Amino acid sequence: MDADTAGGDVPQQVEVGEGGGGGGAMTIKDALKEVLSNALCHDGVARGLREAVKALDKRQALLCLLAKNCNEAGYSRLVEALCNEHNIKLLKVSPACSGVYTPVSSPCT
Hints:
Elements: E1 13-15, E2 25-27, H1 28-41, H2 48-57, E3 63-67, H3 73-85, E4 89-93, H4 95-98
Parallel strand pairs: 3-4
Antiparallel strand pairs: 1-2
Helix pairs in contact: 2-3
């Protein structure tokens, strides 16, 4: 997925296989919440530019979420370039939804 289409052409519902939580269709928002919840349990979430760049550069990331309202064009270009270079999926999220993807409390407890 390239940076130009990362934010706009995302399907709103995906089919979940037998191993999924609800067993039916779920929205991208619900799927991301579930994936991030599992990643938080296993200490697999990098937050902030520095942590994200380190994880992207070491090819430790499978998915990168980037806020659409990022004010620093250099930050966005850096993250997009690292994702493209290492074939890491990049998803641009709206600022209203970004809080949903980073829960304050750990879901593991």
